[in-house]
Amino acid sequence: MPPTINHPARPLHTHPQPRVHATATVDPARDTNAPTRLGGGDLHPHTDSPDPHIAVAAAMRNSTATFGPKPLQYAQSALADTKTAQTAPFAMKPFYGTNLNPHDAAETNTDGSLTRVVRPCAGTSSVHGVAPARTTTTNAQVVVTLTMAHRDALAANRLLQRRHAKAVTPYQVDGWQCLLSKYDLDRKYPSIVDQLSHGFVVHAPIISRSFTPPNNPSITLHQEAFNNIVYKEFEKGHYIGPFTRSQLERAIGFFQSSPLTMIPKAGKPGHFRLIQNLSYPNIPSHEGVPSVNSRVDSDLFPCTWGTFATTCTLIYSLPPGSQGATRDVAEAYRTIPLNPSQWPALVVRIGEDPPTFAVDTALCFGYGPSAGTYGALRDVSLDILQAAGIGPIIAWVDDHLFIRLPSTQVLEYNTTRHRQATSIQANGGALQAGGRIWFKGQCLADGTHEEFAEDCRFPIQDLATDSGFTFSMEHINDISNQLGIPWEPTKDTPFSSKPTFMGFEWDLVNKTVTLTNSKRQKYLSAIQEWSKAAKHTLEDVQKLHGRLSHASLVIPEGSAYLTSLQAMLGIFGSSPFMPRTPPRGLPTDLQWWSHALTSSPPLPIPHHIHSLDFNAFSDASSGCGLAITIGDRWRAWRLHKNWKRDERDIGWAESIAFEMLIRMLLTIDSSSTPLTVYGDNQGVIEAWQKGCSHNKPTNASFRRIHAILASPPRRVFAKYIPSKRNPADGPSRGKYPPTEFALLRAPIPSDIAHLIFDFDNPHCSQFCIQH
């Protein structure tokens, strides 16, 4: 049974509760050479559900366990010999992450076995502050010589205890339960409290054989930074271990680790992000072992996304005087605890020679469903905040934009919200596209619809009547503290009329958006770095293309200057690490980008309810020429007889007709109101909607159009109509209406003046196609 999609109207990742009967027993006195699974015992789940994850998860919660001697706090030599002590620092760390007081330690005897030494309790669950070990006699001291088999059993014992303990998370389960009930959201999200208590089921695959590939060389290169990260993960209780392979297999069965990589954090020298490559191997080349990510479908874990379009919809509708502030959640993915049934697929390799491992009990960066799993829980928190009257709010992963209104505008804005909620409900409520949940509003001038990240059903409340605004940071904190949301205080930005979100500065007064200065400088520096090298890898291309694509959201004409980079993305084939020479036109494109990033003005929020429709059409015929009609007026051009060269095709001819139509319309109306035009070439229509064409001559036409629309900024919406309904079809084929209805001549761009001629040009008989 596939996991239930996290749809706002339904429970979050819910599953039917199975009936499970299981017993897990771990006793060091038993024959521990016998294979053990799922905590060292034999689990026999009997369930009505075919989903093995749910059966295992329920078994781990409901099973009983008979434990052997009290779990030990291992000394450094407990897991490896002296060679390991020099090469694998985390092969010798204590077993952190068990939520147990580290009362006991073990010392190594000369024969390699362990001696348990009882420590007095220091009254803390931390590994710090523990009183020094002391040796006592008979009643005060228990000395037990342990074999390797005993140690394996004790390792399994510790994992079993962690399985039965509450999940490690900063979130306050009682607070979630209380607020969900208070705002009548517990029926909408019936499984949240259980998942926060026992961990989330993220559909990690069942592992049928252990697979533990080595980590990326960057781990060794940045060993100290890696050690610090891993140590902190143990301290926070996210990691349990370390274990040898045999110990971990005895404790949880077969498991799979994925290569770890250290990625430098941009703008933070000496700081790194630990990435787990759960898409390795990309091709099942290691004895047929597939990657973890290849066996999961992230679309089954959808959430809302504060996209550029949804943010534009929100900002456009705000009343005058509104302010925005941003907040980030600290280590967002790591706040999500995993159900023990998920642990075997998400093990981390933390030491070498011999390899040692830790069980990762929290959601990691790199797992396919991570964004959706975190985002789904975040969406619940947004529902709680908005039910409390705080908002509107929009979020991109862990970045939150809070909007507050002037108290005087609440009534009017709630009327707008009610209209939006009605439109959303009429359009089907929550919709899903891949891993994204969104809400459809009214139709826009370009034929698309308003996009929302919420259903707008909660009215905004004036919670801070004495401040002049609807709420303050203290009101956010009042709710988030009850939930245990761990904000990163260094990333808080105060309320202002120009909040930054998604790398953009949003002007709430003038309703414009632009790149932040830091982003502009970052992208300019990226271009400069690119220009220093003659060849580039696929990763280089992907990074630069991603950055400039982001910039093109507020510099729309930039889309037509990304085609060379897009072409380069496709030339690497099966050799992504081999540097390649860029296409010939790329340096010129990057020069354009350098100028645009320096000089482009803020963009009016691209949210257009209305446009000017002059009943304007364009068309082209490969055997004759081009034509446009505006109302009952028309104009036509003839094609040069050798026009079909140098990649020029009928799509190019259609784009030239489209260009001439826009040039003519701009002589009729010079305002900034968007224009709607019509054509019958689907390829050109769709290319223009994207802002670029992969056909070079067609893209050159688009660049000229972008240039004439840049100042003042103006949008043109192209819509498709069948040829039989296109009044420009006849004139494009040489069937000209009466000349008294002909439009005045429009200047032909010099780039194409040798390829098209006015229909009444006397040179047509010499240079043009004869029809």
Provide structural commentary:
Mean pLDDT is 83; it is low at 1-145. Helix 4 (173-182) runs antiparallel to helix 5. The chain has 771 residues and is of the alpha+beta class. The protein starts with 22 loop residues before the first strand and ends with a helix. The protein is built from 21 helices and 28 strands.
Compile the SSE list and pairings.
Layout: E1 23-25, H1 52-62, E2 64-66, H2 82-87, E3 104-108, E4 114-118, E5 145-146, H3 148-164, H4 173-182, H5 192-198, H6 218-221, H7 223-235, E6 239-243, H8 245-252, E7 260-264, E8 272-276, E9 303-304, H9 308-316, E10 323-328, E11 348-351, E12 356-360, H10 370-387, E13 393-396, E14 399-404, H11 410-426, E15 430-433, E16 436-443, E17 449-452, H12 473-483, E18 493-496, E19 500-501, E20 504-507, E21 512-515, H13 517-531, H14 538-551, H15 563-569, H16 586-599, E22 603-604, E23 612-620, E24 625-630, E25 633-639, H17 650-668, E26 675-679, H18 682-690, H19 696-709, E27 716-720, H20 729-732, E28 756-758, H21 764-767
Parallel strand pairs: 1-2, 9-16, 23-26, 26-27
Antiparallel strand pairs: 3-4, 4-5, 6-12, 7-8, 10-14, 10-18, 11-12, 13-14, 15-16, 16-17, 19-20, 20-21, 21-22, 23-24, 24-25, 25-28
